Amino acid sequence: MKAFSFLSQKDNENKNDMDLRDYFAGQSLESFFSVNCDTTRGEMKEYAQTCYDMADAMLEARKK
Fold this sequence. Notes:
Blueprint: H1 20-35, H2 41-62
């Protein structure tokens, strides 16, 4: 599912549109950085994985 599908035309969909999963993960990442701006490279990878885990949980919750 695309995050902004209402912006694309049905006839000519852009394959580079952001997925809803990516959008949710990006929104989650903002909250991590608002709390802790001083991160190491390893922590950033962990935060990114956690954000995608959170996005997956949000997508699963939408099915209910």
